[in-house]
Request: fold
Amino acid sequence: MHKKTVFSGIQASGHLHLGNYLGAIRNWKAMQEEYSNYFCVVDLHTITVPQDPIELKTNIREVAGLLIAAGLDEAHSVVFVQSKVRAHSELAWILNCVTPMGWLHRMTQFKEKSEKQKEEVSVGLFAYPVLQAADILLYDAHLVPVGADQKQHVELCRDIAQRFNHRYGEVFVLPDALIPPVGGRVMGLINPEKKMSKSEEKQEDSIFLLDTPDQIRSKIKRATTDSSKEIVFDQQRPGINNLLTIYQLLTGDNREQIEAHFEGKNYKVLKEDLAEVVIESLRPLQEKYALLTGDNNYLDQLLSRGAERAEAQAEAKIHQVTVSMGLR
Ligand code: TYM
Reply:
């Protein structure tokens, strides 16, 4: 039977964190054998806000290296960098021309990001979800595994595809977002009311995938809790709930087991246990990352093979799109 296609992307805007891992990357790895997959470092999305060129270059390699270290494997997954496949920009422009501005004005991520930037907001940031739609639609992806924050963007992608198909014929597959029931929104350690994020000014809010054991211990030690004593899952207590959710995701234990394990124990024990669980869970990934980035050529060659494979599919799609519109 023909495998369904999966596409997902990740920005190179800073260090990857536990939210990226639990909400996205480790699910990509877990499902890769079942599907035909494209995983993309979306550097063209990253430049929608100003980037230092040298840092950007380093970040692109770091993100790609971490995807491979996390277990994405060429036999099942095409891993590539977005800007290396020109069709992404081309389709984004075409889709800009079928997307009403009103649809983009409703995007909550744009509202949040543009509030911070005020007059500096670029046209690119506004059109960001259209580029994301182009990413997905180029590969005829059926499924888009993402964290909860990307749900609205994937729904917009469906709407754009539907509008295009309505005008020009059945060109695009309508994709569905795949959001994990637990882990779709990992919260910050200091501010557990907000999601853990790469660009968070306070580095203590996020556990980065390449943090040392000492950094992990110190960040978890300082994580916000509350004045209650009971260690139970409770949405009303975001700090403890978040720590327990991370524990649940990394150990695979169920909630009852975890609550029983911590019964009668204090927050200090929870934090110490959690820190060790995080350190041990990240250890294999960190070791593999060190190994594969020790050889510069390895990653470059892998990414260049990935771009070639992605390009073959993307060019065929652009051909179909442009023919359908009368551009060819
Ligand atoms: P990005 O780079 O912000 O995040 C990459 C993936 O990590 C998920 N994620 C989280 N999951 C749980 N808890 C968190 N705190 C958390 N923070 C991030 C995101 O939901 C995402 O799945 N616009 C996208 C990149 C993109 C894309 C695409 C995704 C570009 N083109 C096409 C899917 C398909 C973004 O900024 O992800």
